[in-house]
Amino acid sequence: MKTFIRTNFFKLLSLLFLSSVNPLATNVMAQCDESTVLTVPKNYLGDNFVGNGNFNAIIFGNLSAGGGDTEGRLAVAGDFYGPGSYSVGQAPGNRSAPANTDNLIVNGNFDNNQNWGMQGNFIYNTTNSTSDSRMPSHPVGTGVNTGGVTNRLLFKTLKTYYENLSTSLAGKTSNGSVTVTPWDYAEITLTGTDLNSNVFTLDLPDNKRFGMTINVPSGSTVLINVIDEKVNFSQGSMSGGDRAKILFNFPNATEVNVTGFTVEGQVLAPKASLVGKGGSINGQAIIGGNVTQTSQGFEFHNYCSSFPMPTFTPLPVTLTSFNVLKEGSQAVLNWATSVETNSDRFEIEHSANAKNWNLIGTVLSNGDSKVTSNYHYTHNNPVNGQNYYRLKMIDTDGTYAFSSIRNISVNAASAVMVYPNPVINEATISTQDHSTIKDIYLISASGKKIAVSADADKIDMSKVNAGIYVLQVNQLNGATSTTKIVKQ
After folding, report:
1. Domain range for residue 430?
2. Which pLDDT does position 13 carry in this prediction?
3. Most buried pick, 121, 143, 374, 380, via CB within 10 A?
């Protein structure tokens, strides 16, 4: 947590000191490489814009800042309400924003209760904070306040740009593995071997604290497509990987909560609101809804990204909606398109782990259309637990692209039973079809995995220490069933 001295004299003294030690200290960070994935393209920069399109945080709703800060450059499409202390563009070391560029943009109303410091230009539409004591102050020569200005960024079309970017990223095929321990504090491990780009699809544990470890080759990028609609980062930590090359994409999220968690990397959540209670995002952030930074001091930390803009295959259709609903024991997929050009068909793919995909059906498309077309498909046999679906949209020349992933949970009776339970020496595993089992593990309370033979329906527990274990049965189709077993 940072505390900034508010007087202009000390802010100017600090700025002069940094400049004498490192002449580039004031323009190293916030202008970062403008070719990275979340940078605002030049055609979305408004008239008289000063600087490039690299922002620390872009918020498309309103910002209520009860505490915390934005170390780099901040753009708010809606209103800014600042009941507490705040700062923009000021950070330790060389992470401060550059001077005299547009570093704080509020396209709506600015309503602030306290004077606080910032570096760079403040551009706003209207304000309730007419007194200088409630407007941001600047070290001499580093920026000015300018009112009555709208559309310094073209927010409306820019939001659509980021939504489309998120959908396109979500269509990238996963090439890394994800393991999650099933305990109250979950340990998530992402393992990738590609030297250039590693892609993961992640379904976060519900209402659980977790730690995340990223194991990838040095220098490779990491794209993490989190498919949840409600996302909670709470009282956990991250390790591994290079934050500059990590991108969290939330294509489906409508709510993101960060509580005492440091998110190491860039965040793209173009449809979500964000509530921050302590912790930080250590990288660029795109938030589609409202943001609340509570008095616990959540912060947007200004670390540069080096995650490049990926190349995408143009979609043969304009997909306007795609959702999956559970009806009894079935999964019903509905999607709609507004434009189709040389489109041939949709292949519906299903997975039990968001990595191994199987073709389960095909729906022919209209081919060429400029009106809304609605489609549906029913999956009669989803697996017990999580079910993931995506559309493979195929053109007449064979080129294709994937939609983002949707998921539902089917809570049927457990596919695995173990008896006797508690067990002393030997337990029996009962399943509907033992031939579909890939492997079986006993997982201890500490997370240690003990392999169990999948060829027999008996488990020798005589040499296992007393305690509570999770029996994990992995199916050949990627589905996983778990049940608790007690060793006496």
Report:
1. 416-487
2. 35
3. 143
